[in-house]
Each structure stands twice: as C-alpha cells, then as structure tokens.
Design goal:
Number of helices: 2
Largest sheet: none
Shape: rod-shaped
Number of strands: 0
Order of helices and strands: HH
Distance between the termini: 81 Å
Strand content: under 5%
Oligomer: single chain
Number of domains: 1
Helix content: over 70%
Length: 65
C-alpha cells in the first residue's frame, strides 16, 4: 500500500496543502449546487401547486351561482 509517513509528509508540504484546499473547495461547490437544486425544485413545485389550486378555485367560482 502507501507509505503513511511519505503520504503525511507530502500532505504537509505546500503542494499537498494546495490539493487539500482545492478538494475542500470542490466538495463545497458540489454541495452548494445540490442545495440550490433542491431548494429550486421544491420552491418550483410549490409555485406550480399554488397556480393549479388557483385555476381550480377559479373554475369552482365560475360554476357556483
């Protein structure tokens, strides 16, 4: 497998720290995209449902005297 000491030495070097920071930024970016998608899809469904209910209520109001 890997030599743990060499791996720790590499990760503590400036190159290794840069790779760790880039990895953290990428994970955060992917997480932000997933959160935004989730919020937009949930909010979009709520808007569509509200429009559907409004159309349905307008039809009921037309039919009732």
């Amino acid at each position: 497998m890997y030599n743990a000491q060499a791996l720790l030495e590499y990760l503590s070097s400036p190159e290794g720290i840069n790779k760790i920071i880039i990895g953290i930024i990428l994970v955060g970016f992917i997480n932000a995209i997933l959160i935004i998608y989730s919020v937009r899809s949930t909010y979009g469904m709520a808007i569509k449902e509200r429009k559907r209910l409004k159309i349905q209520q307008d039809k009921i109001d037309k039919l009732s005297p």
